[in-house]
Amino acid sequence: MTTSTSALRVCLLGLAAASSLVHAYPLDGYDYTQIRRLEYYRLAQRGELRGRQLPPGAQAALEDIAPAWEGSTDLDTFTRDEAYEQRIRSVLEDASRYGVTVIDLTDPEAPRIAEHNAGFRSNVGSVGKSLVAVAFFQELADLYPNDIAAREQLLRETHIVADEFINYDHHEVPIFDVASRGLEYRALRVGDEGSLWEYLDWMLSASSNAAAAMVQRELMLLAHFGADYPPSDDARAAYFEGFNTRELQDQFLAAMSAPLERNGIDTEQLRQGSFFTRHGKNRIGGITSYGTPHELAKLLLKLEAGTLVDAFSSREIKRLLYMTQKRIRYASHPALNEAAVYFKSGSLYSCQEEEGFTCGKYKGNRRNILASIAIVESPAGAPTYRYLVAVVSNVLKVNSAVAHQTFALRVHRMIEAAHAADELDTAGAEDAAATR
To answer: Are 127 and 346 in contact (CB under 8 A)?
Structure first.
């Protein structure tokens, strides 16, 4: 007996609904990580606190979020899908100013890749924060290669206090007091304390430049002190005072680049070369940062395979990228409401005087760069579709956030349509065989 496409989808949606009932409030990672934001959102979903209600796709359980690809991570072995590539080019308003890589993992036996201008190299802004996470988890793995419990303890119990490295940043982060149940959204201030796990979360979920700079500071300290990490306040101060700016820059760049190279990433195509705050740049110095869709997609594939650093690190980075705050840009299209989305984006836009043009957010006329990376599992919990996307654009004078949101819809419909056709072809072949 063959199963129709519609019946199959009903079945899968039913499984997804059952999963969400079992894990009704999936922001269940507070006890494990001590990330206070998670407890606030968990209570908000239960109606105990006032707060944003998250879409179904944001309600996967902690235990359900893990790398899921068991195939090759060599992109050269993937089938190049010309139909996908034609479709991608057809939906881009100014295709020459986009770079795109899409990897479709829906059928594990026949993964597909589609690329357009995939070597499009640009500064990818806050997407570089994902590289900071990779570098940090690599140092952690090097320190405790066979002791996951020690890594977890360090992430959970090591508390860091914001210092001048956070200056300056306008990004707000959610700061939740578990005891009083008070919440405030504000930029980090000197003196704000949080665990390493919490600073990693602020860096990725809220895209805080201040939190990123603190994690970059800790990365340098971890690389330098090793088993003696975390250092005392005096030892930390002596470290930063004991080297000149160039020496600190060299140590920083080594800590950022070596982990990527060890994981098979071409740092001529993808690197984060500087701190995310002005003070960090002035104190440490840096070089240019950039990325390409192809290399970003390679990074995502290694993450999804559990081979980025190691299985523990891949799992934790994927969890940190899971969207359980307000979805923005590529991740915000309603077509993805049922999907689990693991996401990071970065924007760099600027304007110059131009008659008749009004500068706006994500709408620069001098530069208008927006980068998005995403792992999409749809629907969450029991995915029918699984795919990876990396897109970088620099289309002037358009709202790039809306453009990426629209592109997300078109990619999602492209994936759905392709596999619906595959299922119909398979069903037709089985019916034909049965009648012979």
So the answer is: yes
**Nearest-angstrom CA–CA distance, 82 and 59:** 35
CA–CA distance, 208 with 202 (Å, rounded to integer): 6
Q: Which of 226, 412, 247, 272 lies closest to 331, judged by CA?
A: 412
Question: Average of pLDDT values for 108-126?
Answer: 96
CB atoms within 10 A of CB 279: 17
Position 9 pLDDT exceeds 50: no
pLDDT digits (tens, 9 = 90+) for 268-313: 999 999 999 999 999 999 999 999 999 999 999 999 999 999 999 9
Q: Give the pair of three-digit tokens for residue 52.
A: 């944003």
d(CA 187, CA 212): 13
Contact assessment for residue 307 and residue 349, using Cβ atoms and an 8 Å cutoff: no
Q: Between the CA of residue 297 and those of 23, 69, 103, 138, what are the distances in Å?
A: 30, 14, 8, 19
Dihedrals phi, psi of 206, to nearest 5 degrees: -100, -5
Given the structure tokens 């390409």, which residue do they identify? 292
Q: Residues 229, 187: contact at Cβ < 8 Å? A: no
Contact between residue 372 and residue 385 where contact means Cβ atoms under 8 Å apart: no
**pLDDT, the chain, mean:** 90
Q: Rounded to a whole number, what is the largest CA-CA distance in the chain?
A: 82
Tokens of 9: 């989808």
Instruction: Average the pLDDT over 28-41 and give the result.
Output: 91
